[in-house]
Amino acid sequence: MPKSTLKNLAIIMDGNGRWAKQRGLNRTKGHEAGAETIRDITTYCANHEEIETVTFYAFSTENWKRPKLEVDFLMRLLDRYLKNELKTYQKENIQFKAIGNIHEFSKTLQTRIRKTEEETKDNTALTQVLALNYGGRAEITSAVNSLIEKGKIILSEEDISSALQTPYSDVDLLVRTSGEQRISNYLLWQLSYAEFHFTDTLWPDFSAEELDRIINEFKQRNRRFGGL
Ligand code: FPP
Asked: Which residue of 21, 31, 39, 147 sits 20 to 30 Å from the alpha carbon of 92, by its own alpha carbon?
């Protein structure tokens, strides 16, 4: 009998650059291929009966340190992705939500993000969350500050959970591609009791078939949440 249920899945997409390099291509080609993988995995999740949210780490607060050309490319790619994706969101009944410091993006990109959220807000099969200009510590800090501003003095875990940007407070399974085994300031609060799976596959090569195998393995795990 499967033991674990999977409602909230989180993914660290890594390895676009190495995928491109292996093929003698520019890193930007790796990001383009990576955007295709996001579409495939999101569609798989929308058709999976248990999964309610999938959260992708698309741009971290540290990613601004990359060369300006690459950052500019990622911004344009994100805008193009959201523009093209609207039909998939509507067809597959997917709600889109962004988390992170969106206000530091260009006005055009902010408008695209807000418009996509607005146009998909009634969709119910899945929520696709993109973490954009996101950092876990920053998210917790701003949740705490927003509670202080509201006059709270003593905070409970529930207070903090409900002030986070994510529409859930616990991730069930985290998958990271490309062989790196770290969490890179991702969803620090929400990963407290998550199961982790690291795969050597580079993100552009990651597929729904591999995710399906990972989920089947996850479902056999016995999650004890600190109990016996
Ligand atoms: C890591 O690869 C990837 C990222 C910078 C984040 C993910 C970005 C995408 C999948 C691009 C498209 C995103 C959207 C939302 C359209 P890396 O460049 O760190 O790879 P490397 O470690 O091999 O250099």
From this structure: 31
* Nearest-angstrom CA–CA distance, 189 and 201: 26
Name the pairing type of β-strands 53-60 and 126-134: parallel
Spatial contact of 54 and 128, defined as CB atoms under 8 Å apart: yes
Q: What is the pTM of this model?
A: 0.96
| Residue 15 region by backbone torsions, left for phi larger than 0, else alpha for psi between -120 and 50, else beta | left
Beta bridge partners of 96: 128
**Ligand 1 pocket: which of 23, 26, 31 to mutate (most atoms within 8 A of CB):** 31
How confident is the model over 97-117, as pLDDT tens digits?
999 999 999 999 999 999 999
Q: Give helix 27-46 / helix 208-219 axis angle, nearest 10°.
A: 50
CB-based contact 45:54 (threshold 8 Å): yes
Residue nearest to atom 10 of ligand 1 (CA): 34
pLDDT 10s digits, 33-64: 999 999 999 999 999 999 999 999 999 999 99
